[in-house]
Amino acid sequence: MNRRTLRRGPALTGALLTLMLGTTAVDAAELDAAAATAVCGHTDAQPALERGSTGTAVLEAQCELNLATKAGGYTPITADGSFGPGTEERVRVFQRCAGLTADGVIGPQTWTALNTWSAEPRPCAPQGTSSTPQASVCGHTDTRPTLRRGAKGIEVKELQCRLNLAMEPGHYPPLVIDGDFGGATQNRVVELQMCANLSADGVAGPNTWAKLTDWSGRNTYCAPPRPAGYPIDGLDTAKYLHPNGAPIDWEAVRAAGVEFATVKATRGLNVTDEYLATDMDGARGVGLAVAPYHFYTGTAPDTGAAQADRFIAAVRAAGYTGQRPGDLPPVFDFERTDDGSESCPPYGTVADAKAWLDRVEAEFGRKPIIYTQKSFLDACLGSTTAFAGYPLQLADYRQSITEPPLPTGSSTWLMWQYTASALFDGIRAPATADVFNGTREDLDRLANR
Question: Largest CB tally within 10 Å, which of 12, 20, 168, 354?
Fold first, then answer.
């Protein structure tokens, strides 16, 4: 299941809560010792500002206020370089969030707190409410040229700032706003494009700018819509959901409404996911139905049986039997290569896939679920009908469809992976999300409950 990004659960994400300083007073000595930082890239000059002030320092303050308070549910204010009543009120809001005296004046302590909160946004109490979206929220430029890796200048600063405002910071660590369109900026553009259902080419063209302008000006973050009519939610886990070793808070995941999980176990002949056991135990521990999955690599001929043996050994060691209450059938991930080429597996055949499926079914007494796509089976296996009798987990991220297209010969699907941009409480990275095609009674039966 290649990682492809839905805001779910309570208003405060588990990820943001780990960043939260709370509303206690900020330590004055620490604030005084901090160096001035131009988080938004306008100026590192940080004079005292109050109602009536104008200029570049006000622009920097307004931009930083937007970055610092949006995670608390506050719609960005206009960044125009003029310190009016709207800016004064937002300063008071921020000062209350940071535990400072709410006088509406930006002095040294407020500047230092702003520098910190805008670089590492966090929620605050009370939460804000929606207000009118703003067009100018970063204050660098109103021009929207097509930008790609290698570009430099204020247009790139505007892009980076808006990306930070559009993408939920607990899952997408804010970019440095330096005006240099490098790899990190390109990756974030791709993540926005995937979230917004655009062509994920990493280039900021007119369509990307339009979505970015929309999301950055409102008090919500980019979130693909969830399919209607399928009330049971699931997700897929792998190492990438543990950035820098961060654990998954499975209690928070369950509280967000997730009822099943597929957990990466193995890839090919030589990779076992290092979080297999902890994620399976964690998900089972909070009552989720859980399935381990194997990513098939057809990079050498006739390896399906050997890949099955590795999978069996790994999941047995992690406690999976396929027969315990909560055990879903194992999942066979059969798709294009994961080396970046998106090509057909060079030695991927129906016979080799069947070798894996047959061996795993014999071991666990459960017919495996196949994760795949109609487009893959059409292009790479000649629209085979060989898998028509298997339950299917189908991947299709298009927002224009109401259910995934079925492979030739298949009559229904079991799970639909509809996004790789889901933001779940308790997880520090965007996740792939699924819905289940059935009732809770159906899920319970499938999970031996």
Answer: 168
